[in-house]
Amino acid sequence: MGDIPLRPGTSCACGDRIPVPKRANRTRPQRNVTGRAKRPRTRRMPPAGVGRTRRWDTGGPSTAGRAGEFPHRADMAPPPGGDYEVRGPTADPRTRGRPRHDRQDRRRPTTAPPLGRTHPMTFTYTLTCTLDTTTALPPVAGSEEQRAYWVTPTILAWPLSLLPRGMDREVVVTNAGHPLPGSGLALRLITAPDGGAAAIHGRILGADGMPAPTVTPLRIVGNLPDEVLAAHPHLEGYIALSATDAAGTPLLDDDAVATALTGQVAIAQYVGAPDPTEDADVSGARLDAFTGVQTAILLDHLYAEAATRAELGVTFSDGLPSFALWAPTAQAVTLLTWETGDRLGSVPEVPGPPRRTPAVRKGDGRWVVTNRPDSPADAASSAPGGEPAAPITAGCQYLWEVRVYVPSTRRVETNVVTDPYSTALTTDSTRSVAVDLADPHLAPEQWATTRAPAVRNDSARSIYELHLRDFSAADGTVPPELRGTYRAFTVAGSAGVRHLAELARAGMNTIHLLPTFDIATIPEHRGSQRHPNIPDGAHPASADQQAAIAEVADHDAYNWGYDPLHWGAPEGSYATEGHQDGGARVVEFREMVGALHDLGLQVVLDQVYNHTAACGQDPRSVLDRVVPGYYHRLDAVGRVTSSTCCANTATENALCARLMVDSVVRWARWYRVDGFRFDLMGHHPRAVMERVRAALDELTLEADGVDGRSIYLYGEGWNFGEVAGNALFVQATQGQLDGTGIGAFNDRLRDAVHGGGAFDPDHRVFQGFGTGLLTQPSGLDHRGWNEQSADLAHRTDLVRLGLAGNLKDYVMTISDGSVRRGIDLIHNGAPAAFASHPQENVNYVDAHDNETLYDLLAYKLPQGMPVAERVRMNTVCLATVALAQSPAFWSAGTELLRSKSLDRDSYNSGDWFNAIDFTGQSNGFGRGLPPASRNEGSWAIQGPLLQDDWLRPSPEEIAAARSQALDLLRLRASTPLFSLGSARLIQDKLSFPGAGFGAPAGVIVMLIDDTRGGSDVDPELDAVLVVFNASGQTLTQPLPELAGRDFRLSPIQSEGADEVVRRTGFDRASGTISVPARTVAVLVQPQSR
Fold first, then answer.
1. Residue 636: Cβ within 10 Å count
2. pLDDT tens per residue, range 357-385
3. Which residues pair with 388 in a beta bridge?
4. Which of 593, 759, 730, 587 is nearest to 652 (CA)?
5. What separation in angstroms does the CA of 913 have from each of 151, 495, 905?
6. Would you call 538 exposed, middle or buried from its count of C-beta atoms within 10 A (0-12, 13-18, 19+)?
7. Where are the domains of the chain?
8. Which of 628, 684, 781, 853 is least surrounded by CB atoms within 10 angstroms?
C-alpha cells in the first residue's frame, strides 16, 4: 500500500473527531465501523455500506477482560473531496476500559491520488488517539514480477502482455518485424545498485537513503533476431528493445552492463511520450507498466564460455585447497573457514568465529581464493583475532558469504551458504568441508582393488532398483549400528547380502540405488531422528499404523531422497554415527561400492537434477542464494516453476548444466560407479544429456580408474510441465534420444502388462495382459467382450514390441493381421515405439513409484484366486521384462512378492511400509492401511483387500516366487540371444510366430532364430522359443513353420524348482507347442554340429 501524503500518526488529545482527508474521487462516502461519514458542507452524498475488521494489539489497557489496545480498522472506498469527521473510541474508567465515543473536530487537507484513479482507503486508529490512513494503490502492470528478458548487452525482450490495454503488437511492430512510429510508447531500462526502485504515484522512485535509479532509453527495434528465437523459442512474439542510440552505439559499455547485473534491473513503459526513443525524460507521459528483468540468458552470453572451462569448487595443489564460486551478480564474496586439524575433515562442526578471506572477482564471474601466501588477495585474510593467517589447510570447514541483490526481496542480502560444488559436508550439511578425493587415506582397500564386473552390452543389463534403508533397516542379521547405512552392504553373511549374492549368481548384474547424494529431508543427527510408536496387535487394515508413521514422517530417518541439497556429496544420514562428517562418509560410501562390485554387481546412482528442495531465501536453498534467478527455471512472470514437485532447475542455463555434468563425472571418477539414472530426464535438454555422455566418454582406466564409455545412462523421459513439447528446448524425452544410447523407461510395456493406467482411481477395474484381461476376468470391467478383446489385442502388441526392444523401425505382424512398424503403434495418443537402439528402452513392470507388482496383482486378479496362482502371474509379468531385448529393470523385492500394503507412493512412509524382508518370512502385505496423505481416498477399496487372508502369502509361497524369478534371471543370462544389442540383429532374428488375427488371447510366442541373419550370436544354440501363457488355460498351439525343429525345454527350467513348467511339450513333427496355464516356458534348439 502507498501512504497518503499526510504526516503519519495524526493524533488528538481525546481521539473523538478526526477528519478523513479530502479526496478528488467521486466514490460515494462509506459508513465507518464506529462512526458515520459526514457529507461535505457544499454537497449532500448518500451513505453506503462498508466492510469492517477488528484486531487486538498487546501493550494497552485491558478491554472486555483481554489485555491490549483495541484498534479499529475500516477498509472503504475514498469519499469525495471535503472534510469529514470520524467518531473514534477512547478508554474510559467509567466503562471499565470499554471504548466510549465523544466528538471533537479536527481537519487536515490532503491531495488526490495520482491519475484520477479510485483506490481503496484504510483507516486505523487506536485508544491512543492515533489515526493512520493509507490507500491501497493497485500495482502498475508487471510490478512484483519479472516479465522482461535481457538477452545480450544491447537486446532486451518485452512481452506483449504488458502492452497498454487495447494496443496490439501490430501497432508497435510491422508484420515484417520493423518498428512502427507513432505508438507513443517509451521504454526505459531502470537499474538500481542497491534495489528499491519502484513505481510510486506514477513515477519511478528509489528507496529512501539509496542512490537514485539510473534510467537508460530503449528503442523498439522490431522482432528478436532469428538466432535468439532459435535458442530461446519461448521468446517468440516478444518485442525487441535495443540499448543503443539511433546509430547503433551501445548506451552501456561492458563494465556498465556487468555492474547493472549486480543490482536491480527493471523496465518501465510509458504511454504518450512525445519522443519515445531518444531522451530519458518522459515528462508528460503516463507510467503504464513496470517490471523486473530476467537475466539468465545475458549471464550466459557474458560469462558461460569462459566460466564453463574454469575451476569451480575446491581444487588442490601441493596439498593446499583453492576455492572458487561462480557468482557473477554478487557485489562482494567472502570465504569463511574453520580449521579442523584433520586433513580428511572428519570431525564435528568446529565452534567459534571463522577466519574471513575476501574473494577476488574474475572476469568470468567467479570469485576466487587462491590460498597462496604470495597472493595479494590472500594477504588480506586474517584469523578471528585479527593477526595474519597461515594458509587454509585441507579438511577445513567453510562457507561462502555472498552479498547479492535478490529480486524476491528487492534488496541486497548477505547470504551465508554452503558450496554448490561441495565434495564433503558436516553433519546436517551446515558447512562444506574441503576434502581432496584423491587422498589415499579416503580409499578403502576393497574399493581401490576391486574392479566392477563387466556387462556384455547395455542391452544385457539386469537392474535391481533398491533404496538404501529398505535394504537393511529391518534386517536382524545386520548389527543395529549398521542398519540403514552404507556399511550394511559390507556385512558378509547378512540376509540382504546373501540375497544380493544369489541374485548376482543368477544373472542380476546391476544395482540401482535410489538417491544417495546429500538430501534435505532426513535429519542426519541420530538424536534428531524420531521413531514411530507402532501399536502392538493392530489388525492388517487398521489406520493406527499409518497414524503413528504420520506423527514422525517428516522427522524420521526415512525418505526416498528426491530432495537435493548438494548433488556432489554423499548423504550423511546413511553414514554410521560418528562417521558423518567430512571425508568419513566418503570412505563409507566407497566401502559400499567396493562391496557391491565384489558381489559381482555394478552400481547405478539415481540422480535428481531437475529440481532442488528449496529456492529463494529458504535456508535449504543453496543455488538461488548464490545467483538469484539463474539456477532455477522461471516462468513468463518470473516465478520459479514447480512442475516436477519442487523448485525446478534450469539446466538449459550453461552453468547449471555444468554443475550437473561435473557432479556426474565426480561420481564416476572418484566413486567408480557404473551408471546413472536421471529423475524426470525430460525436464533436461537433450543437448545437456549428450554433454554428460561426452564428458563420461573422456574418462579412461589409465587416467581415471574407470572406462567412461562403459557407463550406462537412462532416465524418465516423460513429457510434461512448462517444458512439454520442446517449448523451451529439445527435451531428453522418449523418442528424442535417438542415437544417444541413453535409455528411457518404457511405460508402454508396463501399462500393457498391468492394464488401465498408473493413476486409475480404482485399479481393480481394468486388467491387462499379465493381470487376466479377458482370460481371467475380475468381473469389475463392464465393457463388452468386443471392447475388452480389442483392448487385450492392442496391449499384447505393445508387449511384443517391448520384447523386441521397443524399436521404432521394428516390423512385425500385429493382432489385426497387418504388418506395421513399431512407431506406427499408438499408446495414449503417441507413437508406442521410441528407441532406435535396444538400450534406449528400459523395460519394467514395477518401480519405487506407484504400487508394487504384487499389490497391483492383489487389485486386479480375480478375488479368491489362490496365492500359488498369483505367484505364477507374478512370474509371467516379470518374464516380459527379463526375457526382452532391452535392459531389464526390477524393483527390489518384486521377486519376493514385495508389498507396501497397497501404498501408491511410499516416499515418506517410513521403514514400516518400505523395509524388505530378505528372509522371505513376510512380504509386507497387511501392515495396515497405507498413509492417509496419499491413499485415504482408496481406503474403502484397500481395507477389505488387506484383511483378505487369501492375499497374504506364506513363506513357502514367497520362496516359490523367488525360485521362479531366479530362473528367469538364469534364462536371461544363459544365452546372448536375449540381448542381441542391435536393431539390425533384432529385426533379422526375432519374430512372433502365430501372431495376427485369431491368435490365442493372453498368449505370446517369441522366436529368436540364430540361423537367420549373417552372424552366429550363440555358438551353442540355433534358436530360443519363448511362450508366455498368461491365460488360465493350458495352451496347445500348432506352429507349422516350426515343424521339424528340435525344441526342448531349457535345462534351467527342466531342472528348476517349478514343477508345472516341466509339463511343457513340443511336437517336432507338427510344430505344436503345449504350455500350462499361467506359465512362461523357454525352449531351446541346440546348434547343429
1. 16
2. 999 999 999 999 999 877 655 555 665 65
3. 382
4. 730
5. 50, 19, 10
6. middle
7. 1-138, 148-294, 306-436, 989-1086
8. 781
Same fold, 148-294 and 989-1086: yes
Dihedrals φ, ψ of 362, to 5°? -100, 165
The length of the chain is: 1089
Written as one letter, the residue type at 267 is I
The CATH architecture to which 989-1086 belongs is Sandwich (2.60)
Region 306-436: CATH code: 2.60.40.10
Question: What pLDDT is recorded for position 273?
Answer: 75
CA distances from 702 to 102, 669, 1041 (A): 93, 12, 52
Q: Which residue has the higher pLDDT, 73 or 182?
A: 182
Cα(1069)–Cα(1045) distance, rounded to whole angstroms? 8
Q: Tell me the pLDDT tens digit for each residue of 639-677.
A: 999 999 999 999 999 999 999 999 999 999 999 999 999
Using DSSP's 3-state secondary structure scheme, residue 432 falls into: strand
Q: Which amino acid is at 753?
A: V
CATH class of 148-294: mainly beta
**762 three-class SS:** coil
Residue partners of 231: CB distance under 8 A and separation at least 6: none
Q: Tell me how many helices (H) and strands (E) the chain has.
A: 24, 53
H/E segment holding residue 521: none
Q: For residue 630, how many C-alpha atoms fall within 13 Å in the half-sphere facing its CB?
A: 33
Confidence at residue 136, expressed as pLDDT on a 0 to 100 scale: 56
Give the gyration radius of the chain's Cα atoms. 35
At 748, give phi and psi (nearest 5°). Answer: -65, -50
Rounded to an integer, what distance in angstroms lies between the CA atom of residue 850 and that of residue 207?
A: 52
Count CB atoms within 10 A of the CB of residue 477: 16
Supply 256's cell numbers: 556498465
Determine the residue type at 209: G
For 536, the grid coordinates are 502392538
- 25 or 550: which carries more pLDDT confidence? 550
Q: What is the pLDDT of residues 217-249, one digit of tens each?
A: 999 999 999 999 999 999 999 999 999 999 999
Determine contact, residues 804/986, Cβ cutoff 8 Å.
yes
Q: How many CB atoms lie within 10 A of CB 1071?
A: 18
- Cell numbers 482411481 correspond to what residue? 761
Q: Indicate if the pLDDT at residue 714 is higher than 50.
A: yes
Nearest 5°: the CA angle 533, 537, 541 is 95
Cα–Cα distance measured from residue 601 to residue 592, given in angstroms and rounded to the nearest whole number: 11
- With CA atoms as reference, report the closest residue to 614 among 639, 634, 632: 632
Per the CB < 8 A criterion, the answer to whether 324 and 366 are in contact is yes
Pull the grid cell for residue 436. 581432496
What pLDDT sits at residue 51? 36
Average pLDDT over residues 1070-1075: 98
Residue 141: name the closest of 159, 155, 121 by CA: 159
Contact 778, 860 (CB under 8 A): yes
Q: Are strands 712-715 and 743-746 parallel, antiparallel or unpaired?
A: parallel
Q: Which residue has the higher pLDDT, 501 or 179?
A: 501
Query: Using an 8 Å Cβ cutoff, are 837 and 735 in contact?
Result: no
Which residue is listed with cell 508402454?
748
- Residue 818 is placed in which grid cell? 497387418
Residue 60 backbone zone (phi > 0: left; psi -120 to 50: alpha; other: beta):
beta
If one counts every other C-beta atom within 10 angstroms of the C-beta of residue 893, the result is 29
CA 142, 145, 151, 154 torsion: positive or negative? Answer: positive
pTM of the predicted protein model: 0.88
Contact 604, 463 (CB under 8 A): yes
Catalytic residue positions, numbered = 679, 716
HSE-CB at 204 with a 13 A cutoff on CA atoms is 34
| pLDDT higher than threshold 90 for residue 632 | yes
- Helical packing angle, 495-506 and 955-974, nearest 10°: 40
